[in-house]
Design a protein that fits this description.
Layout lengths: L4 E7 L4 H15 L3 E6 L18 E9 L2 E2 L1 H7 L26 H5 L27 E8 L7 H15 L4 E9 L5 H11 L3 H13 L4 H4 L3 H13 L32 H19 L13 E4 L1
Parallel strand pairs: 1-2, 1-3, 3-5, 5-6, 6-7
Antiparallel strand pairs: 3-4
This protein binds flavin mononucleotide (FMN).
The site of flavin mononucleotide has 23 residues, from helix 1, strand 3, strand 5 and helix 5.
Length: 304
């Protein structure tokens, strides 16, 4: 029997989104999916190691939330404004369908702005009745601070990621979000100021530094700048959002942020929820009497 395949792609700066992505990948593997799990790193040349979505049964896309939106890296790679080289094929708007050159032929058929160039039923729109191509099932997820009002702060990003999958021919059937410890914004702002770079570049640099502090770019950087990076990254370690009170009289302090104990999220409980969520999607969609997956009619949602 042909093994089913899944790909888990995520943008993650401080590791929260990565933890959830790995939990999803673990479950997918447990259910027999051959799984590629990969962080969307700034500056990676995807043409050397492309991800062809049509090769997969499930595509999982995750991101941290920055200023109310998915991380720039995720958006640029998969969005209509980006070059979408993740598939190893540069998409040219209006290009003629060419299955030889474009293994994601489905996408080229819908070049233009999907939704305006209305994809017709029975001609391959993902999940449509009569779609001749196998449906690629999508799951989008976010980890986020939600410090003010909690869940409503992640809805927009989940929608944006669903849209990013849709324009890449993937039909989203699951949305997941959980809180993630926030790196102090002072770290991002402080590094931007100390190195005289903008916020987006500061975040990308933090990601690269966290990944490999001995990389060449840091070896050749002024010692003062390296000290500044370490200083600002170090600040977040003693970041706690719990007060010294005990509002319920049960020995549990109250939380400043909306989400409880957000300095320690994702917690084991969040990761367990993530695993249950993914297991249920796989079971309900893929463990069928015929072995064919069910049509993508139901949206599974787990947001906290
Ligand atoms: C510069 C910056 C901006 C952020 N903006 C938001 C935001 O607008 N809304 C939100 O809910 N969380 C925001 N966060 C919190 C992150 O989304 C959250 O901590 C996430 O779990 C980080 O994931 P990562 O560890 O995978 O990078 C922000 C964090 C940083 C550092």
């Amino acid at each position: 029997m042909k093994k089913r395949k899944a790909v888990v792609l995520y943008g993650s700066l401080t590791g929260n989104t990565e933890m959830v992505g790995k939990a999803f990948a673990e479950v997918l593997e447990e259910y027999g999916f051959e799984t590629r799990c990969e962080k969307l790193k700034a500056g990676k040349d995807w043409s050397e190691d492309p991800v062809i979505f049509s090769d997969y049964d499930i595509v999982v896309l995750g991101s941290l939330i920055v200023a109310g939106l998915p991380y720039k890296e995720v958006y640029q790679l998969l969005g209509l404004q980006g070059n979408r080289t993740i598939s190893g094929v540069k998409m040219e708007p209006g290009a003629e369908p060419d299955p030889e050159k474009n293994p994601m032929g489905r996408l080229q058929l819908h070049s233009g702005i999907p939704g305006i160039v209305a994809p017709s039923v029975a001609t391959g729109s993902p999940g449509a009745k009569g779609d001749m191509l196998p449906t690629i099932y999508g799951v989008v997820y976010a980890t986020y601070g939600g410090s003010g009002v909690g869940p409503p702060e992640c809805y927009g990003s989940l929608e944006v990621m669903e849209e990013l999958l849709r324009v890449n021919g993937v039909r989203t059937v699951g949305k997941f979000a959980c809180p993630g410890k926030e790196m102090r914004h002072e770290a991002v702002d402080g590094i931007a100021k100390a190195l005289n770079i903008n916020i987006a570049d500061s975040m990308a640099m933090i990601q690269r530094f966290t990944l490999d502090p001995d990389a060449e770019e840091f070896q050749s950087m002024d010692a003062e700048k390296i000290t500044a990076i370490k200083h600002y990254l170090g600040i977040e370690d003693d970041y706690s959002m719990l007060e010294g009170n005990d509002p319920l009289g049960i020995g549990k302090p109250g939380s400043t942020f909306w989400h409880y104990d957000s300095g320690k999220r994702p917690s084991q409980r969040d990761l367990t929820k993530a695993k249950i969520f993914m297991a249920e999607i796989i079971e309900d969609y893929f463990l069928t009497t015929t072995g064919d997956p069910r049509p993508p009619y139901a949206m599974y949602t787990c947001i906290s």
